[in-house]
Give the backbone structure.
Amino acid sequence: MQFFGKTQFDFLSKRKFFLILSVIIMVTGLALTAILGLDYGIDFEGGTELAVQFESPVETDRIREGVASLGITGTEIKSFGGENQYIIRIKQSEHATKEIGEAINKAIPEVEMIVLKMDQIGPKIGAELRTRALLSIFVALAALLLYIAFRFEFAYGLGSVVAILHDIIATFSVALVLHKTGVVNMEIDQTFLAAMLTVIGYSINSTVIIFDRIRENYGGKMKGQDFITIANTSINETLSRTVITVSTTLMVLIVLLIFGGPVLRPFAVVMSLGVVFGVYSSIYISSAFVSWFMERRQAKAK
């Protein structure tokens, strides 16, 4: 399906401008992270996990309001197991489990609540999980570098990793600002990590599509032409696919933003940001980087 006709946009003529813009975005993102600081969720900081059961159905917002009455924020509430059973995850707090139970009972006096079990997640375990989370991202980047380098060549792999780093920093910094300004509660937890890893996968997918078309044109119908022309043509030829994929993905994410509730909303926000930055980087970072590298190689060959 062709969303557009044959387009001839000169995407890479402004590649230096977008390179500078990308550097500014990355530096600003790192600076904001250093200035604003990070807010970790229960997974990476530690806290209390309660498994409770109510005698009849209750709304999760009412449970959250009960916990919030003690001044506790960032509560995770999920249904699990049987009917009317919930997991309540709370950050490290000076309030005892008994106080939390009393606060919930006060907010929902008409329904009796029973505590089924309670588990503590210590700060040491949270620190170990943070280390493993960072390691998982670095392993993913290394694996993608090897994959792209093997499928294409090393310059393509390096360009992909640079683009992914841009997407991670840009998405993370915008999400951090949204969290700090109170627009969306997005503490760094397992859901946030899952969204970031998904962003990496989505970003590399968009990049591979363009790289595959570049390789096809470079050794086929456009053989002998300068690499910038080949790259521009390849981006234009995959533009319809890019627009359709991004549009359908964003439609699903918008639905999650509206109806997903506080548990899924952070995932949807991070993914939406990642999709937008991923499309941008696949054109103006990875493709521009490979074009620069290949131009230098062509110049040396002459």
